[in-house]
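Before relying on records like the one below, remember that each one covers exactly one chain. Contacts with other chains, cofactors or solvent are not represented anywhere in the record.
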Amino acid sequence: MESNVSIDVLMEIVKAGGKVTTGVDVYNAGGVLLLAGDICVDTLKPLEIIKKTGIGSVPVDTDLNGALLDSDGNEISLDADVMPEDRVLPVTAMPVNNRSVRMNSIFPAIATNEIEVRLVEIEEKRRQAMQKHAVAKQCIKNVLKDIQRTGGQFDYSEVERTVSDLAEFLIIGENPFSYLTQEIFSYDEYLYNHSINVCAIGTAVLHRFNQQFSKIVNDHIKGGIATDIYNPFAGETMQGAHGFTCYYPHEIDDISLGFFLHDIGKTLVEDHIINKKGRLTGLEYTEVKKHSYEYGMTLMENNQIRNATVKNIVCFHHAPLHVGEENVYPVVEDHTTIPIYTRICKLADIYDAMTSRRCYKEAINPVNVVTQIFRTYAKKDRLLQYILHAFVKSIGIYPPGSIVFLQNGQMAYVLESDGPLVLPFTDEKGRTLKYKPDPVIADFAYTDHLYAVDNRKSVISPKEVYNVLPSYLRDFLVMQH
């Protein structure tokens, strides 16, 4: 039987001459082993180290030879009726890095196996991402309020500082914002979140494209590796020594800035048009289209923004990606003149818009969106294939926040696209589980085939599945908005 015991209680036992064996390995948030489960602790040092990391309790599993012994070698009961009340960790909360986490949280307080290590890492990434997201949201709010108050002026330097810090965080973390759910259940403050999401998604795709395409070009120039330069989907590319780099760090900063401001022109479009629930009239659609090439560019000029990269993104992020593409603007004679980074912005913009709930539409399951974007743009343009490849690899076939079916009929929430790592939340008949199951890696190579993703079944929309989500998963989704 496994019970969570306070570090302070364990330290008191050792101080009194007792011994502690957990029976399970204890890891920190970075996956570093702090205490092996078979180690008998009879000194305070190991427990002090664990406590300094912010871990307030550890599991003790008597079924795995875990035990608490007093100075005479007698076993100390883990039963709450036997142990003093102050020696039992409250069942309502567990301290993690000086924070309180509910016992029914989808993330563990500490990691005792490989999957839990990943969950703890995801939780830490989410925590950092939420902090950065809050700062970025306040920045874009200030921009839009300044424009409305002044008729077009805003603090461009504040945006540069915010996005520079944001871009560095996004590149190092490989888009940690992917662990925050999209606007799937709420459309409040859509424009603010959309600006941040496009910046996050676009920067992640840009970084991956930059690595892969630069490597492919270098290999092709050297002639030392037989690389089919027109088929990036044939296999993975590996980064190595290079002499050519598509985009340098200062250029990526400018591009991320453009991603962040791409829809700034919408502040000059009437709210009743932007938030109209029904179909736009021809005149209304014409007005909306002006947000890029007319209103956006007007704001660039009013604020004396001469950065060509930012202006290209603002003006052309709805331009065509291939010959014959419909419903694009502004009209350009040659789609190949549209910069690569602007094309990346368009894909990021489409993805976030489709996976977000708006006043006039429900959110679409991210799995369906990735598939639809791939089918729409695959094999349309050679260079576009590299952009599309980077996009799919960055987002993942099963993006975090997606709803999937497993082979046994259960529905599951995707926690991480790598795997993917999923949390089942229904039984085989679609009924909400009455218990919190363990997450599983839903791939044939890692798990029983019954728990692998079933691609034969059509995934459903977030709205359709919301009513069968367990309370702890609903809380997890709601707390992010």
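DSSP finds 14 helices and twelve strands in the chain.
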